[in-house]
Fold:
Amino acid sequence: MLFADLPPELHEPVACLVEAAIEYNVPANILLAIAEKEGGKPGQWVRNTNGTYDVGPMQFNSAYLKDLMSHGVFESDVAAYGCYPYQLAAWRIRDHLYNDRGDLWTRAANYHSRTPAVNAVYRADLMTKAERWGSWVEQHYITYEVNLEGLAASMQFILKPITPAASEKKDAAE
Structure:
């Protein structure tokens, strides 16, 4: 059994998180570690000192909800049971990983806070949890080391953006 070493209440969230990591091209160990750190529950609303709320299983900050509404995503979606809240978090984490500044861990910790001192504390614990989850993922799933040379040309944008000028040069050379 795939999840025999996890408590039963984690079976569905872990399956959802791994699926979301694959779908949104986010390292599974990082997504699992953020979920563990956030420690939310479906339907949960936690008030922050700044007046915002952390919502649902991935403790999505309510400050982001206005942006989500423009995509047809509502508070009830973020707070829901099932896989959808994890997919939303993976989507947001992917945006941090691909677009924010700093090293991988700082960008991942931006999910929680961009304030440097708060980010640094979260980042340190995130790295520890991600290392443990990385070992778990390797024990339970077939994983591959991905590098630019190992990707099909159509997928290389994942690790290295292809600029229009570069792709036009490639087309002209063929």
